[in-house]
Amino acid sequence: MTLFVSGSRSIKVLPQKAEGELNQAIAVRELILVGDCYGVDTLVQQHCKDQGYTHVRVYHIGLKPRNNLGFNTVAARGSHYYDKDILMARDADRGLVVWDGQSKGSQANIARLHAANKSMIIIAPECCSECGGSGYVPDGQGGGEFCGCGGAKGPWSRQEVSAAEVHEGGVEW
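The structure assignment produced for this chain is given below.
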């Protein structure tokens, strides 16, 4: 199995729920795909390094990654940072998204995984009843809007979306 980990640049500390998901992936020797940006990408790299886990690939654009804590790399073709995200979503079997509720890049990766019928776990701040803790209110037609709380309040919540739920349309984003 291969896990694509995506997340917001604004996140400075990896939530415990995200660490738990990573530890489960490490326990079964899942290949972890992660980007080269600051925020969640470098936090995930640091967590894997701290665990002595090397079954990690850092995806990047250009000649070398912006941030790499010593892992093997994959250079994605293209000139935009989202080109590496598209490749990681394609290469992965499932996803883990640690989202601040505002990042459009993390939101796009949720949509990419959803469009590819891949299961994912979304970890986001639990903040208000309007957005259900994600900071984002889906419209049921593939879009939505930010609720205004920005996903910045309260504890972190975990939502698991299976590939079957995605495929059957049981989850709306």
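Interim note for the steering committee: Residues 2-126+154-168 form a domain with the Rossmann fold fold (CATH 3.40.50.450). The two ends are 25 Å apart (CA to CA).
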